[in-house]
Amino acid sequence: MKLIIRNFSTLLKRFRLASTLNILGLAVAFAAFTVILMQVNYERGFDKFHSKADRIYRLEGLDTDHERAYFASTHSRPVIDEFIRSSPHIRTGTLVSDWGQQYITVERNGAKTGFFEYSLPCFPEIVQIFDFKMIEGDTSVLRKPAYALISSSMAERLYGTEPALDKQFTYAGTTFTVGGVYRDFPRNSQLKNGFYYNFGPGATNDWGNWSYKAYILLDDPANKEAVVENHRQNYVRKQDNPDHYATDYRLNLLSDVFYSNDVDGMSPETNGDRSQTRLLLIVAFLVIAIAAINFVNFATALTPMRIKSINTQKVLGSPNSHLRWGLILEAVGISLIAYLIALIIVYLLSVSSFATLITADMTLQANGHLLLLTAGVALAIGFIAGSYPAWYITSFPPALVLKGSFGLSPKGRKLRTVLISIQFIVSIILIISLLFVKLQTRYMKTTPAGYDRDNIAVVGLSPEIAKTQTEVLSNRLKEYAAVEDVTFAHQLLGGSDDYMGWGRGYKDGDVHFNAFPVSPDFLKFMRIHIAEGRDFSESDLLKPDSEGTLVINRTMQQEYGLELGDIIRRNMEVVGIIDDINYTSMRKPIEAQVFVLQPDIFKYKMPLYVCYVRLRPGTDLPVAVEQIKKTVASLDPAYPTDVRFFDNVLDTLYKNELRLDRQITLFSLLAIIISIIGVFGLVIFDTQYRRGEIGVRKVFGATVGEILAMFNKTYVRIIAVCFVIAAPIAYYEVSLWLKNFASRTPVHIWVFAAALLIVLSITLLTVTLQSYKAATENPANAVKSE
Fold it and tell me: What is the pTM of this model?
C-alpha cells in the first residue's frame, strides 16, 4: 500500500499539469453528471411518492369535435360523479379544481394582509387516495363546510411559527377555519400545495362547466381496462346534445401524467417532455463518457513512461497481480479524488443562483441514493481506466527495460484515435443540439404574435377592484404622463397554454372555443387588426338581452363555418373576425378563439382581473412600475401587487424551454471544455513522445509551420470523419425534439457547418498553442534526449 501511495504521489508530481487538468475535467464531469441525474430523477419520479400510486389514475376524455382530436384533463361534475359510480372496481374518486393562485386575506393586528395561495376545492375522499401527512389536525375536517387543510408552507406564510390550527383566513367572501396542516407535497407532484376544502353540492347538474380534474382509485391496476370498457358500454349521456362532451374516456396512471403530451390543460410545472428528459440523460452520459475517455487516454499515454519502472519491480520479484492492482488502485484513487471535488462543486451550485436552472432539489441529503450511484460510476471509471494499461504494461517480459513505445506503436495510436474520435462525435452532436435549442427558443420569443406586446405592463387585480373599480383605476393611471392607454381582460393574453374553454349551441350542434372576456377597447389597445366586420363598441355593453358580443379568429370561422351576424347560443352575436394570433405558446397549434364583450347587466359577467398598461416609449420603467403599484394599492391596500412586462410573461410561458436552453448550453460547454482538456493532454504526450522525430525533421529543413501542420492534419482528418458520423445522429435527435412544437424553426444546414467550424477552430487552436513549444525547440536538445 505504501508503494502504491508513493507511486501515486510521484505520478501527480511528475505530470503536474496533465494530472491537474485530468482531475479537474473528471471532477466537473462528475458534478454535471450528478446534477443532470438529479433533474432526470425528479422528472421520472413525478407522483411516485404516494403509497397507492400504482392504483391512482386520472380520468381523461377524448374530444373529437375539433380538427385535432385530443384528450382533455377537465370534465363537468356530473361526468365525474357518473364515472366514480360506474364500476365496483373503483374504490373511490375525487374531483379537484385547480383554480390557480387566488387572493386571500388574513387579519393581523386589526389590519388585512393579502396573499396568493392555491385554491383547491375537492371531494373529502381525496385523503383516501393521496397521502396527506398531517402535522396538525386531521383530514376529517374536509367533510365540514368552510374548513380547510392547508400546506405547511402556507401555514408558515400566513401565521409564522404560531400553530395554525383553528386560525382563519378569508377567500372570495368566505371565512375559512384551518382544520389541519399537512406536510408539503414534494415539488414533483400534480397536486399543488395550497388550501383544500369541500367542494360542496355545487355544479351537480352543470354539464357545461368543464373545469374539474378527476382522480380515481382502483382496487387493482389489472381492472383498469375493464372499468373503462364497462363505462364505454353502459354510460348514458345525460345532456341535451351528445356532441357536447367527450366521445370516449381513458384512465391515465398518475405516474404517467407528467409525460402525457396528448392532453390539453396541462401546466408547464406539472407537464414534461419525455424527449427533453431523454436529451438531458443523453447529455449526462455523453459528458461522463468524454471525461472517462480523457482518463483512459491519460492512463494509456503514461504507459511508455512507466514500463522501465514496472519491469524493474518485476525483476526484483513483484508479481504481476500486485503490480496490476497497484496501477488500478492509482486510477481509482484519481477518480475518487475527482468525485470528492465534484461533491463540493455540487454543494456550491446548490446554494448559488445556478439552482434556479434545476427544478429538482439539489441538496446532497435529498439525493443519497443518487450519490451512491454516482460514487459507483466513479469507482467503475477508475477501474476501467486503470485496467487496460495495467494489463498491457505488465505483459512485457522482465528483460524489456528499455524503450517502451506503446504510445507510438500502431496499436497505441489506434486506441487513442478511437477514443478521441468518440469525444469529437459527442462534442459535435452537443453543439448542433445546442444551436437548434437556441434557434427554437429565439424563434418562439421573436416570431410576431399578431398583436403589439411592446411597452406593455400587466398587473393582476383583486376581486374588489376587478368587479367595481376598473374605470376608477383606468382614470387614475391615465393621469400619469408615462401612461399612454389602459385596458382590461379576464386573463393574460399569451400567458398560458390553458384558457377558459366554452361550449355553446350553434344551429344543430355545438361550437367549442377558448373564451377571452375583455373590455371594449381591448383589441384596439393590443393593435389587433379586424379582418372582417367591426370592433367592439361601448354600445355593446348596453345590449339588454345579450350574453355577449363576439369577435372570432379565422380558425373558429373556418372550423365551424361561422359568418358575420351569426348567433351562438341564443343571443351571442358574431360582429368581427380577426386573423389568427399566437395567443398560446408555439407548442400548441392555433385553435378556435373568441374575444367576448359581456354586457354590464349580464348576470354572470366575468370580472376582468388583468389590467394592461401601455407606457410611452422612453419611459423610466422602474418609476412607472412604482406608480402603477401605488395606484393599485390606493384602491386595495392589502392586495400584493405584482407588475410584469411581456418579456417576463414570455419567459414564464416558455419556462421549460428556456431552462432546457440554459441547461444544454452549460452542459455542452462543459463537454467541449472537457474534450479540449483531453486534446490538450494528448498533445502534451504526443509532443513528448515525438521530440526526437521533430528534431530530426528540423535538422533536415522542416519549418515551424510544417511541424505545426503535421500535428494539425491528424486532428483535421479525425474531425472530418467524426462529423460524418455525428451529423446524422444529431439530425435525428433534433428533428425528434422539434416535433413537440406546432410552430418550429427549420432544420438549417448552416447549423451543421457552424458546429464543424467551431470544433475545428477550437481544436486547431489548442493543438497549435500546445505543439508550438515543441516545434520551436532546439533540435539538438531533442535529438540528444533520444
Answer: 0.73
